[in-house]
């Protein structure tokens, strides 16, 4: 079975939590000032792209290799809506050779949107 991103409001057993407060959390937030245009807040798409770019940088590649080894084959759980981009999609792609734009996210039954 292909690993996927799950939306949860709390840690889901068997999945690695990648949301706020975890070691895998995205340090960038939608609404933060854009690095290119500080007067304009970043969108969700932009913060996911910035996270992906960070992992391709000189320091980020070190973390990317660690994250890939730790997350390979695992489901990832985040608080983001499955209907919007999430850095966990980037982590899934990194760990499993997937396209992070492929939309492999699933909302768990009984969880909030």
Can you walk through the features of this model?
The protein has 113 residues and is α/β, with parallel strands linked by helices. The chain has one domain. 31% of the residues lie in helices and 10% in strands. The chain has three helices and four strands, in the order ββααβαβ. It has a four-stranded parallel beta sheet with strand order 2-3-1-4. Helix 2 crosses helix 3. The longest helix has 13 residues. The protein is globular, with a radius of gyration of 14 Å. The C terminus is likely disordered.
How do the SSEs run, as a string of H and E? EEHHEHE
- C-alpha Rg, in Å? 14 Å
Biggest sheet strand order reads 2-3-1-4
> How many discrete domains?
1
- Summed up, the helix count is 3
Task: Average the pLDDT over all residues and give the rounded result.
Answer: 83
Q: How many angstroms does the end-to-end distance come to?
A: 24 Å
> What's the count of strands?
4
Beta content comes to: 5-15%
Shape: globular
Which ranges are low-confidence, i.e. pLDDT below 50, for 5 or more consecutive residues? 101-113
> Helix content range of the residues, please?
25-40%
Taking the sheet with the most strands, its summary is:
4 strands, parallel
- Structural class by sheet pairing and helices: alpha/beta
């Amino acid at each position: 079975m292909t690993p996927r991103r799950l939306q949860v409001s709390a840690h889901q057993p068997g999945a690695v939590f990648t949301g706020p407060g975890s070691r895998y959390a995205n340090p960038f937030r939608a609404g933060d000032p854009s690095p290119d245009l500080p007067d304009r807040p970043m969108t969700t798409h932009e913060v996911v792209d910035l996270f992906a770019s960070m992992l391709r940088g000189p320091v980020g590649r070190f973390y990317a290799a660690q994250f890939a080894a730790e997350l390979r084959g695992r489901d990832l759980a985040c608080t983001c809506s499955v209907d919007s981009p999430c850095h966990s999609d980037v982590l899934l792609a990194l760990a499993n050779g997937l396209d992070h734009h492929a939309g492999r996210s699933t909302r768990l039954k009984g969880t909030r949107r």
